[in-house]
Amino acid sequence: AQKVTQAQTxxxxxxxxxxxxxCVYETRDTTYYLxxxxxxxSGELVFLIRRNSFDxxxxxxGRYSWNFQKSTSSFNFTITASQVVDSAVxxxxxxxxxxxxxxxxxxxxxxxxx
Amino acid sequence: EAQVTQNPxxxxxxxxxxxxxxxSQNMNHEYMSWYRQDPGLGLRQIYYSMNVEVTDKxxxxxxxxxxxxxxxxxxxxxxxxxxxxxxxxxxxxxxxxSEQYFGPGTRLTVT
Lengths: 114, 111
Fold this sequence. Notes:
Chain A is mainly β and 114 residues long. Chain A is built from no helices and twelve strands. The mean pLDDT of chain A is 93.
């Protein structure tokens, strides 16, 4: 069975600090997909990134970057120079190939104060 | 505009009164799912559908029913709601391997 663990329940930082959100996953499949979603206080779920298991290249998008390491089954998310607008709950999720199920971690609440 | 819509957005009801939350997507996606979100538990899948007339249980299906008679619609039915079904519900759709497109959420309170 697939499983996603986000060990950090809540993180508080001050604006301009860098912050890393951890995600560790478990799966028996060799083909799978990993995702990050953001849920701002308004409640909607915003897609941030998808990564398939064959693509270990790290990705950077503006202040966001993702570090995928199959050796440690981790898919960590770093926000550089955090801003108040980054305050949200962030979810990591896993989907095994051939299935339509998507398993979420319990989320990490990020609070960025001015 | 590509979107997933849910109705109603907010609902307060009483124990035992049957209700339906509708979900519709305009992207011709094959896969649709329902999730519930509870504090400290994240999102948990209730049911999913891989295509018309093909549905299967997710992690927390007890007390819920779904149907998929048309590709675009995937209603969630609570035949006899109970207070432990008070939650925030999300419908989602996607293609195989792609990201989920989520609806705006339905906040349900069962008293």
